[in-house]
Design a protein that fits this description.
The complex is a heterotrimer of chains A (377), B (146) and C (387). By secondary structure, chain A is mainly α. Helix content of chain A is 68%, strand content 0%. Chain A starts with a helix and ends in a 9-residue tail after the last helix. With 146 residues, chain B is an alpha/beta fold. In chain B, 15% of the residues lie in helices and 28% in strands. Chain B is built from two helices and seven strands; from the N terminus they run ββαββββαβ. In chain B, strand 4 and strand 5 form a beta hairpin. Chain C is α+β, with helices and mostly antiparallel strands and 387 residues long. Chain C is 45% helix and 12% strand. Chain C has 16 helices and eight strands. In chain C, the strands form three sheets. Chain C has a three-stranded antiparallel sheet with strand order 1-2-3. The two termini of chain C are 32 Å apart. Classes of the chains: A mainly alpha (377), B alpha/beta (146), C alpha+beta (387). Chains B and C meet through strand 3, strand 4, helix 2 and strand 7 of B and helix 1, helix 9, strand 6, strand 7 and strand 8 of C.
Chain lengths: 377, 146, 387
Amino acid sequence: MAGAAAPFALFAAAQAAPAWPVKTVAARAAEALPDHPWTAVLYMALAFAGLGALVAVLGMGLIYLERKIAARFQCRLGPMRVGPHGIFQTVADTFKLLFKEDIVPARADKTLHLLAPFLALSSTALMLGVIPYSPILQISDVNIGVLYIAAVSGLGVMGILLGGWSSYNKWSLIGAMRGAAQIISYEVSATLALLVVVMFAGTLSLSGIVASQAEGWWIWRAPVVGGIAFLIYLTASTAEINRTPFDIPEGESELTAGFHTEYSGLRFAFFFLAEFINMFVAAALTATLFLGGWMPFHIGGANAFNAVMDLVPPGVWFLGKTAFVVFVIMWFRWTFPRLRVDQLMRLEWKLLLPIGFANLALGALAVLYDLYFFPGA
Amino acid sequence: MGIAPGIERHAKVNRPAVRVPAERLLQVAARLRDDPAFAFDLLLDHAAVDRHAENRFELFYHLFSTAHGHALTLTALVPRDAPVAPTVSCIWPAARWHEREAYDLMGILYDEHPDLRRLFLEDDWQGFPLRKDYRDPDMLELPGRP
Amino acid sequence: MTVTVKTLNDIIAPPGAAASALATEEYFINMGPQHPIAHGSLRLVVRLDGETVREVIPVPGYVHRGLEKMAEHLSWRQIIHLTDRMDYLSALMNNWAVARTIEQAAGLATNPRIETIRTLMAELQRLQSHVLWWGVLGMDLGAFTPFLYGFREREVIGEIFEETIGARLTMNYIQPGGLMDDIHPDFVRKTKQVLAYLKPKIDEYDTLLSGNVILQERLRNIGVLPAARAIALGCTGPVLRASGVPYDLRKCEPYGVYAQADFDVPVGAKGDCWDRYCVRIEEMRQSIRIVEQLIDGIPDGPHATVKFGARIKVPEGIHYGQIETARGILGVTIAADGKSDAPYRLRLRSPNFSNLWAVTELARGWRIADIIAIQSTLDLVVPDIDR
């Protein structure tokens, strides 16, 4: 518990009088620890239970949303039978997956085969813990949040790699290898885009980055540079979560189902869930870094306008922005064909990476010479 | 019209047709493709008919020339007990698979074929189903037919 | 003279041990018969080096039903329905090919009404087939939405067929010496309605898929089939035309009432996947044009010139007839003995059979994903390969 408190202390020192007082669950627990240890334990238990519930609710909600949005794109209705407008369809599907026979190929590596889906899901869940949902709702505010995100999101590739490797299936293996190559490659661009924001915000802490956008979101406050970084990050994170047009690790028309070909029942559900939570995390991070997270739409100095914007609670701002990015990612999926594996690599190494580097250099200059909106704030 | 000796017109085909001795098939086919006056570059179809009563197979090749727009049917007879014919897949690559099909279903053996294998049926299938005397344990006899 | 016959196992013998620990090893993988790209049940045995395709060995036969053998035991009229089950997306054109060959062989005359209706139906079906092809191509390349768009339009045309024919897939409509039944009284009105609906849809296809940079990246310069090679491999239909050979039976040897219609035969420039894509998209527009020109001038007359009970006598000999289906030339060879009521031997030269083998040459050296693009632009219907 004391370890969790330390980062908050650092952050609190850096921000002498924060306009938006941030209070994370970890901080509350740390506060309560000296006097009421059990309250601290309860806080942390609440946080874990909250995370679990979030994973389940998000998973079901996003799957339902995806199906409905896909249906809209495709001039059909989508699920309509289970409950009004089919809202219980995902619940029914979850039960179906729970009761399905769990088939493990005879020559599979049983331990790794079992472990892979959990790895995939846990790396995702770990990221949910540091996202600032609103000033009062964040589980832990790590002072190196951005670094933590970059590290943990790379862990997800282990699940894919192990799943493909342990299945004893050539399609799975090809899918896993593609996945590993793709995720590691796009990690580079995503991190370069992250660094731009880190430079402007001057902090690695996620809530610090949100707080730094009180005068305006980085996507426009850092002229051009912010926009380019946003596009690179959106592209790279779409690739990292294996969604169309970058869904080559599981491209169903090529590799049947890629790395999860040999998964069924609950284990398949875990992979499936991980994919959707990943999408949420990617969207939430994009929103946090470039669209201000829970920060309302502010224009530095326009106090009257900002006050009106503040009427909408920060949690709603966060949800709205995340939902928008989620929608964009779904929009990609239902309109774009899939790239080929070498085209994917070409896009990363020959296009995104050079642009990312140039952007980073430009960003550095902009920070150095205060060439962005409201630098004094 | 001078038709080379051994090659005769085939009157019972509803398009221009000639009958060629099987052993000269390759030579004729090469000429038909390479001679600019013929220029039959497209082999539309090749298959065999089981002339059971005459104890031989009739092979036919439907040719077309994309340059001239004319068509020709080439036929050849091979004996039933030694159904060997030269492959024309070196002249028309399309023949490669038509010949595999003819082997698979009719049992025609193509000499020098680069890849003579069963096409549709399993590699260990017994017999050639399109032959008139083919019998399968699962076949039902139609009443009143031989 | 001995001829050796090989088996599949001889060809895919396991490779020897790797020369060194760093050497890569080629491996075989089965694409199909149970695979999303199998489009039915086509099996491709692919020799791969990593992601690179070294060799493609098609292994057809999983839908082989022996139609040619079956036909030897069925009467002239009964063999029509077998052809529905070959290329089920061109069922009417298959019907027509066999019926036309029988008519030519037996000397049966038809009338302008029959021929006009046949032409209209064939063009509607070509349109329907291409619409579905477009949707499936989208799905094969990872865009699922076009698939449902394609099916939406396919249904609309299917309804026209259903009204007149009563079937949506296996038509069995075009008979030797006529049609199974006359067209529905609503046929003309409904067809015009559908055409008006479809025309903007084809433009919508362009905005949704054709203009997409990813799609063009996936198709341009992939699987180039030069004209000479296309002819040598026996490719026909849009595949051959995309390679720049304007060989379309509707223009070259007009049958039906195609001679009365004014339409263009689209050809490609170099024969890559993109050309095959564009040729089919353009063929949809041309089919609409043909139907538009003919729909108002259906002549009067009976829908059959031969009574359905009447015995058809086909003289002895080999009779060949051919028709341009949505995928290429369907050639029908009938060997008749002049005595029996059934063909002595029926040979069906299906367009997909010849088009399939192009994949062995086109995919070599490309990636796994390009097999998908190539196969999808060849537009294979597997039951037509296997018969």
